């Protein structure tokens, strides 16, 4: 294994796996830390954790354990993947995990770059934008678990980290790899250990990737991985040829626990042509709607060209009301458990394709299904690949809240079946 990655959630890990697979690396996503060695063909291994919103000390322990396994696979470089919207609380996990990984690897520095231009995330003068809005005005300020109220990544990270934070601004980035390398060295010499790097375009990320060739530890959204396959290829380390992947036809379902803007639009678009059932938070929490009901409803609505969708997704006011009444963590845990159990029941009933929206929701579903690893298939939309359970016959898509085109659910169903984008579901 050449590149060892640690992802702080399952959808984000599949986003990174997608980026590396598109770059020509043979990638496997491990859901949790494997207890056996990686298969010899794996060039990039992504260990997916569900650590984004857990207490920082636990996130550090899990990330260090993932690092130990990756080091045992002989990796040359390590990447910590978090969200392209830097999802974390001020006392959150990115800083402590980055501190711990830097110290464990004795890394003189780690870049911090959440930019992912294909999905509108750019970093300019240390500030994170989602398309033309600052992060804190993008809708992320109302996220149910990690409200992002400060767009200055340097300031947000400094609140979480024990180590000094530096910055390489766009003026250096735009000059290309040599200038970026020089600026990183300058910041490192000035004592910075975590260095936020600006990036607006894929070209910026390719150049940054080139400048990071010799760095032991990198961190960011999946965009920071854009230039890495080329480094390994130029060093003659990749076995070219891509990975084998085949889709799965048969029963399909979509589950959405994401309250993000994009998911809400996708639900509305999907409901025009497909059966869609709302699983309201109050019904789940009061016990009046059980996973058994949702699974039965999906199975009742099986039909050709149909992708039944069960969703819990509400606007920020409704989310706030549910959290006030039942508590933030209890609400999230109950809804996630509901989707995990629904997926388990469906899998028992012969489900072949499963589309899940929402990072936390996906983590709960994948854990509930006890899926050890995924093979990576074609891209559905930027940041979302088709996945196949390693050694199994279930095809899945794990969609981050704000990713995907408006017709994502139907499109994903087609691609998971191995069809081209224009075919029927
Ligand atoms: N109606 C609701 N009220 C309160 N919380 C809800 C409601 N519906 C869903 N949730 C919870 O909100 C959280 C949404 O997080 P999740 O990570 O699944 O989606 P997301 O934040 O849109 O995705 P991502 O993390 O990929 O950006 C989950 O814990 C889910 O259980
Ligand atoms: O980076 C992103 O935006 C995604 O891969 C993700 O992590 C959202 O959960």
TrEMBL record:
Main EC class the enzyme belongs to: transferase
Name of the protein described by the UniProt record: 3-oxo-tetronate kinase
Residue ranges of domain Four-carbon acid sugar kinase N-terminal in the record: 3-227
Function, in words: Catalyzes the ATP-dependent phosphorylation of 3-oxo-tetronate to 3-oxo-tetronate 4-phosphate.
Species classification: Bacteria, Pseudomonadati, Pseudomonadota, Alphaproteobacteria, Hyphomicrobiales
EC number from the UniProt entry: 2.7.1.217
Coiled-coil residue windows: none
Stored Pfam families: NBD_C (PF17042), SBD_N (PF07005)
Entry keyword annotation includes Signal: no
UniProt keyword terms in alphabetical order: ATP-binding, Carbohydrate metabolism, Kinase, Nucleotide-binding, Transferase
Reaction equations catalysed: 3-dehydro-L-erythronate + ATP = 3-dehydro-4-O-phospho-L-erythronate + ADP + H(+); 3-dehydro-D-erythronate + ATP = 3-dehydro-4-O-phospho-D-erythronate + ADP + H(+)
Gene Ontology molecular functions: ATP binding; kinase activity
Four-carbon acid sugar kinase nucleotide binding domain segment(s): 254-409
UniProt KW Nucleotide-binding keyword: yes
Family recorded in the similarity comment: Belongs to the four-carbon acid sugar kinase family.
Gene source species: Kaustia mangrovi
InterPro entries, per the entry: 4-carb_acid_sugar_kinase_N (IPR010737), 4-carb_acid_sugar_kinase_N_sf (IPR037051), NBD_C (IPR031475), NBD_C_sf (IPR042213), OtnK (IPR050007)
